[in-house]
Amino acid sequence: MSDEKIGLILGPIAQHATEVAAIASARLSGFGRKNDADQAAVDAMRRSFQSAPFSGKVVIGEGEIDEAPMLYIGEEIGAGGPRVDIAVDPLEGTKLCANDAPNAMTVVALALEGGLLHAPDMYMNKLAIGPGYPAGIIDLDLSPAENVKRLAKHKNVPVSEIRACLLDRDRHKSIIEELRSVGAGIRLIPDGDVAGVFWTTEAARSGVDIYFGSGGAPEGVLAAAAIRCAGGQMQARLMPENEQEEERARKMGRDVHAKLSLDDMAPGHVVFAASGVTHGSMFEGVHFEHGRATVDTLVWDSFTGRRSRVRSTYPQ
Fold it and tell me: Against a cut of 0.90, is the pTM above it?
């Protein structure tokens, strides 16, 4: 099957899955019930996949089979067709949705079997920039200060015009201090580091040039799919916190000391889709009016090179 045909199959599957999940979770936005909102998104996304024309296997999901009743890692789903790896975050930013705070979204990445890293559920250190820069200008083994200086040089702007994004966590204090010492701007986010990496792909819209810091490894693979489609750059490294996590990574065939490239995390063509749940830097939130729900979605497809933004309306 040609790349174009695969993209034409997988693009609509990813789009529909994120849209129905966004609508389902948005109905619970602002009610303080983050688990209920997450479950609503999971249920809607799973129903969408059940009738989709593919043979899917979840490689990044809601947890192991004994932790998650639906969309668990290893679950097989779909109505038949090309064999596809599925990575999902049915509700990126559960707390954000619960509080009706900005930037909650639903996320899906689809690739042919073997096309996405099977990442263990642990921390991952991440570094990412968007498209338009020469290969190799950022490096996880360089200091944060050196990375922003390199980026500023190639963007032909002073460091003060570079804005970095990090999760607002105590573990990032030294990175924040170093970046501020060289004059870089910083956007601290309470949750949602898929979004943080994703923002670098459209810096003019989001205002974010570079992403630093540690967050979940599964979220790192989803973010890598976006970077792959956009033509950006990303590096990462697993960060096990104890011997049990190290052993788990080894059983999955992962070298916890290796610096992961984009080719390690998303080695082949991929479809990335995300829909806004609450208003934010990249999306409008779901809007309910007159018995209809309108949702703002981005679909990127490296199989065909298509990158689109869509506003869809569903009857309710």
Answer: yes
